[in-house]
Amino acid sequence: MSQQDRKQEIVNLVSLKAGEKAAFSGISNTPEPGFGHMHGRRWRERHFHHHHGIFSFGLMQRLEAMGIRPGIIITKISNHFLRGPVIIEVGRTQLAIGYGMAARILVDKGVMNNEENTAHGQS
Length: 123
Description:
The protein is of the alpha+beta class and 123 residues long. The chain has helices at residues 41-50, 52-65, 99-104, 109-119, and strands at 10-12, 21-27, 73-79, 86-90, 93-97, 105-108.
């Protein structure tokens, strides 16, 4: 199967189920709807819209420091109740990522689905 035939299925890390694998594809440019809701609308607008570029750059640097780069396979181990941290595995390392950060991490489930179909002789 060629790279162009592959179907992308981009979702955020929070929406993966425990045990699912996906390839890191980037970060979302917008925070999850309602993120920061306890601080009110004015705080969200000032915090995310004014510092948006800095926040995205800092997040990407933090992910790279943890070994999370485009194309790397991430396995979601678990997430905690009510927007708690999300536990992931990258290689042989388990990491806990805050809910807000996990909601901005985009992964491609299509990579893993296509590899499984190819392994079972399906196309």
